[in-house]
Amino acid sequence: MGLMARGGRLPRTVWLLLAARAINRLGAFSLSFLTVLISTDFGASVATAGLVSAAFGLATIPSRLAGGRLADHLGRRRTIVLGLAGCAVAQLGIAAAGSLAEVAVFAVLLGLVFELYEPPSQAMIADSVGPADRVRAYSLLNAALAVGGMGAGLIAAGLGRWGLRWLFVADAVSCLACAVIIRIVLPADRPVRRGGAALRPASPEPAADIKPWRDRVLLLMLASGTVYALVYLQVMMSLPLSLARRGMRPGDAGVLFTVSAVTIVAAQPLLRLRRLSALSAPAALALGYVLLAAGLAGYAAAHTVTASLVATVVWSLGDLVILGRSYALVADLAPPGGTGRYLAVYGISWGFAGVAAPIVSTQILEHAGPAVLWSGLAVVSVALAVGQVPVARVLTARERKRRVPEFAAVPGTP
């Protein structure tokens, strides 16, 4: 596939941020047990527990948007610390709650602060590296979170034997540890101020002129990103049930998720292959979606753990390509001083998908079975690959429009 593309070394700021987020991810396991806590400790029905979880999911949408605005106005580092500290307070509140109403209140509070640190984290990476290194940097962020996720499962298994509330305490501790690390080791940044001064020293555009909701490419990315997030979350939620339907152990899903994380980490060097790095963003995303479709089609045909392992490796390679390229493209679209808001708008795709995914996956599994679920998700992934064509067209048109003033400024040019 070609020789490795020569890339620059990532700055120390990026590596420190990756390490801090990995530590935070080690404790990010409590939400998976929120409905269980509500049902067992307070005797609530599954439907009531689901409503509380849905309220949390809805609250994460304004949280992501607020994180983007605060990142560009308050500063990246301050917003990250604020979000992590807020998560710690809310999680400790859930752990100490004495009634279902208190749990619901703290769950909504957790949702309102849960996504605050995502846009500034992603924007800090965009500010710290050049466009050529953004794909690698965002892919490494995904890998760091995957590594933390592997350890999170082991910690959850141990603490869960003491009591579910301890999971929320441990999650709060990891948030505080991450906040302290970021506050101490990461450099302070300058927020956008009135009159046009931005995080980047020479910002030609006032912050008030940054309007991400009017950017056609960003809106196309938001649409495709929402569908992708819906597919991804259905994999996370449906895989254990699908295995059980086919006579395999639901616990084997943990093995498959671990294989996915290992693949994402081990395959990082592939991103620096010349042929892959030379692809345009839409072409690379289309390739990623095709790989995702192939892996999901493999799940549709798999009736053994071995076959499922092969399918997992394939779709994880697609995930590796998609996440790095998508966030890098959105960061490149943003005008100076608007990176946080652009990434926040794109990031709410996960909030939309988080509300829809549980309903869609369970209904399909219940009424049609695993083969239809995975085949349908594979078809949707192929559609996402085809959907990169309009993205490429709009990007080409934008590039031509930018070049017109440059040509017009040359003396003698008609």
Automatic annotation (TrEMBL):
**Residue ranges occupied by any Major facilitator superfamily (MFS) profile domain in the UniProt entry:** 13-393
- A Pfam family of the record is MFS_1
Q: Where found, per UniProt?
A: Cell membrane
Tell me the domain of life: Bacteria
* Key words of the record: Cell membrane, Membrane, Transmembrane, Transmembrane helix, Transport
Q: Which Gene3D superfamilies match?
A: MFS general substrate transporter like domains
Keyword ATP-binding in record: no
Chief site of localization: membrane
Give TM segment ranges: 44-67, 79-97, 103-119, 140-160, 166-186, 217-241, 253-271, 283-302, 308-330, 342-365, 371-395
The topology of this chain with respect to the membrane is: Multi-pass membrane protein
Q: What is the protein name stated in its UniProt record?
A: MFS transporter
Q: Which organism is it from?
A: Streptomyces fildesensis
